[in-house]
Amino acid sequence: MKILVVMEHSRGAWHRMSWETLAAAQALSADVEALVAGHETGELAQELARKRLSRVHAMESPLLAEYTADAFTATVAGAVERIRPDLVLFPHTYQSRDFAPKVATRLGRVLVSDVIRLRDDNGLVMTRQLFQGKLNADYRAAGPGPHFASLQAGVGRADAVEAGSAEIVTVRLDHGEPSRAVPHPPFRESSRAIDLTAAELIVSVGRGIKEKDNIGIVEDLARALGAELAASRPICDNGWLPMERQVGSSGQTVAPRVYLAAGISGAIQHLVGMKGSKTVIAINKDPDAPIFEIADYGIIGDLFEVVPALSAEVRKIKG
Amino acid sequence: MKILAAIKQVPARDTQLRVDTDARWIEEPDASEINEPDAYALEEALRLKEAHGGEVIALCAGPEAASQTIREALAKGADRAIHVEEDALHRFDVLGVARILAAAAAAEKPDLILTGLQSDDLGSGQTGVVMAELLGYAHATIIMQVEAQGSGIRVKRELEDGWFQHVDLPLPAVLTIQSGINRLRYATLMGIKKAKSKEVRKLTAAELGVPPAASVVLDRVYAPLRVKRTVMIEGPAAEQAARLAAILRDEVRVL
């Protein structure tokens, strides 16, 4: 099976998930090729050439200096037609979400997005989550390739990428269609006042809290423990806590000693932001909540009873 | 501005899900609701219409029961709706569903198509992007702000890790809307009353010329296997709290 991995980088630095995707491809096949698209990608291609790959494709154009869906779609779709892989893999990043479906559509194919497991079982089987992680689904690639998938964080391990040596094929593109979208430089809203990444203990609150006025009980637990207060996306969407307290793929990625999740069901977008935590404690009324799949300690119960009782017990111990 | 809001009905958040007998999908859920990111897309469409004039059309593919979500969209202020009635939408893959929606949208020639960035059921996060490609429209994803600007629009795109980016786009365009872009409104009594007389055009996938497709096959739906051994703390709340506090002191050692 020939696999083409579409690597992602910005301003000369790789996106970490590109390596994870490459490792997953190497685990599945002896015939893996990698593609890097951009302007002046020489050093990036050189680095790729030191991995166990059949070939490195460097797609070069000034039009690829800044990401646009139009230019990246034309470039990758053209490369897939030339390289003819059986499977094309993307890291499931925000950038891939913006253009990988467009590439597959242009070639009349379907992208299986946000894949959490990839295996060969008499053909390619791709596992992804349904219903915010409450169920899993196995998808089978049917008929001839190329098949397309984007891989969620953690499918492969970045440190498992095998070394080797590969030839570099540089393609200088001169397709002159300018992008319809005109991107401006990326910016940050404000300097981040709250750095959750440095916190040893985090108490995080989710939709189960029901109302803004109820957040006080979780805040009080954080105070009792000496922990930082964090939240899942819906809490910040509602304006109940500032965006800078959000943990997950659109917020901060944290790995504290203890992460206590109160009323958080554990959608994949949240889990990728906290699953590196040393100890995960989950309090949720739904025994099927996906957060329990990664929790070390779980309490199935009413957070409105358990959380205040826990604050009191913690204060008792601390004296 | 003629704006089309593509919305979807999904099982309500707290509904118990039951895998169906052949493990290919779920049984009819007890309660359904609008897909949350789509609710934000509809709200953004209504706000753009209020600011710049024009029309908002709600487009929904789904079973007869999805009429509930369509009525709510009309009650909130959509001018009319298109319902592609399809009982088993899960027989269509991502491309098939986008073909249905694109075919229905093409006839309307909208300036702007707004939809949620992903659905709470399938969660593919692709429908808007695939529609844009099928229609030949420009697009931008994960949008947190939309402003009219000259003959086009300027949007604020969410990037990873707290970064954002403004992007200028010509019209027509497709935008996938992020939850939290605005504050959702409730339907008023007057709105609910008015909705009853608004037009809902019914179509089918067959009429739009889209057969169920399958270059990837949904093989099996199942409950995830627990990989981690979770220590479950049982008992009444007070006991659970006392036991967890003891664990934090003796095993996790943070107290």
Write the layout of secondary structure elements.
The complex is a heterodimer of chains A (319) and B (255).
Chain A lengths: L1 E5 L2 E2 L2 E2 L1 H13 L2 E8 L3 H7 L6 E6 L8 H15 L3 E5 L2 H13 L4 E10 L3 E7 L4 E7 L5 E5 L15 E6 L9 E2 L3 E2 L12 E5 L9 H11 L2 E4 L1 H5 L20 E5 L5 H4 L7 E6 L12 E4 L2 H16 L1
Parallel strand pairs in A: 1-4, 1-6, 4-5, 5-11, 6-10, 7-10, 14-15, 14-16, 16-17, 17-18
Antiparallel strand pairs in A: 2-3, 7-8, 8-9
Chain B lengths: L1 E6 L1 E3 L20 E3 L1 H17 L2 E8 L4 H10 L3 E6 L8 H13 L5 E5 L10 H9 L2 E12 L2 E7 L4 E7 L3 E5 L11 H7 L4 E4 L12 E7 L8 E2 L4 H14 L5
Parallel strand pairs in B: 1-4, 1-6, 4-5, 5-11, 6-10, 7-10
Antiparallel strand pairs in B: 2-3, 7-8, 8-9
Helix pairs in contact in B: 2-5, 3-4
Describe the structure.
The complex is a heterodimer of chains A (319) and B (255). Chain A is an alpha/beta fold and 319 residues long. In chain A, 26% of the residues lie in helices and 29% in strands. In chain A, the strands form three sheets. Chain A has a nine-stranded mixed β-sheet with strand order 9-8-7-10-6-1-4-5-11, sandwiched between helices. Chain A has a five-stranded parallel β-sheet with strand order 15-14-16-17-18. A two-stranded antiparallel sheet of chain A has the order 2-3. In chain A, 55% of the residues are buried. The model of chain A has no long low-confidence stretch (mean pLDDT 94). Chain B has 255 residues and is of the alpha/beta class. Chain B has six helices and 13 strands. Chain B has a nine-stranded mixed β-sheet with strand order 9-8-7-10-6-1-4-5-11, with helices on both faces. In chain B, strands 2-3 form a two-stranded antiparallel ribbon. Chain B starts with a strand and ends in a 5-residue tail after the last helix. The chains are: A alpha/beta (319), B alpha/beta (255). The interface between A and B is large, with 96 and 76 residues. Strand 9 of chain A pairs antiparallel with strand 12 of chain B, so a sheet runs across the interface.
